[in-house]
Specification:
With about 500 residues, the protein is mostly helical. Helix content is about 60%, strand content about 0%. The protein contains 18 helices and no strands. The longest helix is centred in the middle third of the chain and has 35 residues. It is globular. The two termini are about 40 Å apart.
Length: about 500
């Protein structure tokens, strides 16, 4: 995966001031929750813009960061312009981009942001849903998630026009929607931003745990052909190399690592597909419909795989022609149709091929004694091991500014940042050790954090954003948002419950 750090955050340029391009060497990501929220109302820094699975888009911020807080809190004042000025304001004309991306670049980044370890778990998801429920359910899930991405982009555009800001990220959209919404909800604007940032942190930590366990299980599967060793030994052996790799703070130094990981991932998926399509059994050999008890596990795994909503606004904000992002044949719909087709194909054929014996990752089902299948496991294990540090950048940069703020000298700040990285990597190692079932941890991460970001937050944000604008004829937008919200909350509750029950059951046997 190539380095995407040149895709910088957008900044507001004061009228009459010289336009200042942002340096690629400026600090990665934004300040943490503490530094964001303790500043003055007129100088609040932009919150973290996060990345979904296997996405290397890490944003930087400049010294000229947006004063979103001040704009939102005074949005009703005359100083922000008349209603006519706000209606004619086009955010895309006020963006200053050092390296804008083309439509094709954006499509590639969108695919990378949505295709990760989740695609290898789709056959296990189909086992929990049944062949045909999984087939149609995955397509429906993809359509709902794509619509929620459109909702988030539309809310961002509406709030940008309302506040006359060039761009907003996920947590800013949540904050500004509350700050400019009904009076009774404005007191919760900071809470909304903190909640979104928290779930972004939980999501990325969850991804890191999945990566840790994925690598250990695939290496164990290869080595079991020669020596039988407990998976916890492999996890322990990985700990020190993982810590050393994540002490690298500049993402630019990891560009070759990202490229190697991308090449290995594509090669591993291609070979895995060739195994799945060889000698497929009849469709009657697998369950068409699974039991109600396992459907929440399917939901958790599927929403984990589709949770790419965190990359949507960064990509749209950095496009050369952002008007091509939406629309029926736009970049977003095109990319998500490809993603949905890939997930459905891997899930359908993987479950049809291996049936009830399918495991948390399809690579674990490949023939153990076959040299090529062993190579696939090693290839995917190395690719995911190298990708761990990219996922790790998001949570560490959420917490690191808060930790550094407690020390005075530069040496103490750097030492505290190093200790923080060691602690967080060790924490993901401990979580992976406690949950040895890969399918269960994927389902749990999806049900808890991915559903919150992809299905619960967007309808709430849209209902609040368009409170003063209107919900359309017969309030169709309001009813639609309620249905999506109920679906997301149901998946959150029942998916979390089923995943925890499976984890506890696995540990007692």
């Amino acid at each position: 995966m190539e380095d995407l750090t040149p895709l910088t955050n957008l900044q507001q340029i004061p009228e009459g001031a010289p336009r200042k391009k942002m340096s690629e060497r400026q600090p990665l990501l934004l300040q943490s929750d503490a530094s964001d929220y303790e500043g003055s109302r007129g100088s609040a820094a932009r919150p973290v813009r996060s990345s979904p699975p296997d996405n290397t888009l890490v944003n930087v911020h400049s010294e000229d960061s947006l004063a979103v807080h001040a704009a939102a809190s005074g949005s009703g004042d005359d100083e922000h312009g008349s209603a006519a000025d706000k209606a004619s304001y086009n955010p895309t004309l006020h963006r200053t981009l050092e390296h804008p991306t083309s439509n094709f670049d954006t499509l590639i980044h969108l695919l990378k942001g949505n295709i990760g370890t989740g695609i290898l778990a789709m056959p296990d998801a189909f086992k929990n849903a049944g062949l045909y429920v999984g087939l149609f359910g995955t397509m429906i899930m993809g359509a709902i998630c794509t619509h929620c991405m459109h909702m988030l982009v539309n809310c961002s555009h509406e709030l940008c026009r309302r506040l006359q800001q060039p761009a907003l990220d996920f947590s800013e959209v949540a904050y500004c929607s509350f700050e400019t919404g009904p009076l009774g909800l404005r007191r919760y604007s900071q809470l909304a931003r903190r909640i979104v940032t928290t779930f972004l942190f939980i999501t990325q930590i969850g991804f890191c745990c999945v990566y840790f366990l994925f690598v250990a299980l695939n290496i164990k599967d290869v080595m079991d052909h020669y020596y039988k060793i407990n998976v916890h030994i492999y996890l322990l052996l990985m700990l020190v190399p993982m810590i050393l790799l994540n002490l690298v703070r500049n993402l630019k130094y990891l560009t070759p690592v990202s490229l190697i990981a991308a090449i290995l991932t594509v090669a591993g998926l291609a070979i895995s597909f060739s195994y799945m399509l060889h000698d497929l059994p009849d469709v009657h050999t697998v369950k068409p419909i699974a039991t109600w008890a396992t459907l929440p596990l399917y939901f958790g795994t599927a929403i984990y795989a589709f949770e790419g909503i965190g990359v949507v606004l960064p990509l749209e904000n950095n496009m050369r022609t952002p008007e091509d992002f939406g629309g029926t044949t736009g970049v977003l719909n095109t990319g998500m149709v490809i993603v949905a087709c890939l997930y459905t194909s891997v899930g359908f054929f993987g479950y049809l091929k291996y049936g009830e014996d399918v495991k948390g990752s399809i690579t674990l089902n490949l023939p153990q004694g076959d040299t090529l299948s062993q190579l696939v496991r090693i290839t995917m294990a190395v690719a995911i091991f190298l990708s761990y540090t990219l996922q790790f950048y998001v949570p560490v940069n959420i917490v690191e500014p808060f930790v550094r703020s407690h020390f005075d000298t530069t040496r103490a700040k750097d030492l505290s940042a190093t200790v923080l990285r060691i602690v967080l990597v060790t924490f993901t190692f401990l979580l992976a050790t406690c949950i040895p079932n890969l399918g269960s941890i994927i389902s749990l991460v999806g049900a808890v954090s991915s559903s919150a970001l992809a299905l619960i937050a967007p309808p709430i944000i849209e209902m609040i954003t368009f409170y003063n604008v209107g919900y359309g004829r017969y309030n169709w937008m309001l009813w639609k948002d309620f249905l999506i919200l109920i679906f997301g909350l149901g998946g959150f509750v029942f998916g979390t419950w089923a995943s925890l029950a499976q984890i506890l059951n696995d540990r007692t046997h």
